[in-house]
Amino acid sequence: GAPFDGRSDLFSTGVMLYELITGELPFHGEDVSLFHQILHEPAPPLSKYLVDYPAGLETIIERTLAKNPDDRYSNAEEMAADIAAISERLRKEQGIEMLRRAEHLVNADNYLRAREVLDQLIKLDSKNIDARKLLATVQCNLAVRQRSEQVQQLRLRAEEALQEKLFAEASSLLEQALQLDPSNAEALQNLEVARQGKGTQD
User: Fold this and answer.
1) Are the CB atoms for 27 and 5 separated by under 8 Å?
2) Global pTM?
């Protein structure tokens, strides 16, 4: 019978937040038992359902589900500010961990997986300069690796063509390889062989 205001809605929001986090309602029971819990019993601590969670989260839940409206947040903006502060801290901590993992992958030459992690990190924190710098390095290394693989494939095909005395085809393949890697000694050597063979054939 007492007057109520927006702090009643905050209590309802607290119930929803509790269920979202734990998968359980803070109060259980039927009719009289349920009303008794809501009016007199605190919600079970988050530690009953969770092992690892931000310390400030428990305080937000407790304050939102306080029995006395005067002990709750005075308005939704105040509650949102506390939630946003925890969210920002978690985002930074997650970003640091993801950057550390990406650096480890780069050191292990696992550039594809490193790129995946860095792409996720930049989606999480688009202004992370360290992540963007590392991603540029990863992209450069991937380009070098891809170019090296292409050169290797062209050289192998050229060697097969040389064995079959298809000197014109071998020359074309080796010229493509040297466009990608002008200093490749084996390609240069094989190109000279291919040209000499083509000259003899002609």
Assistant:
1) no
2) 0.63
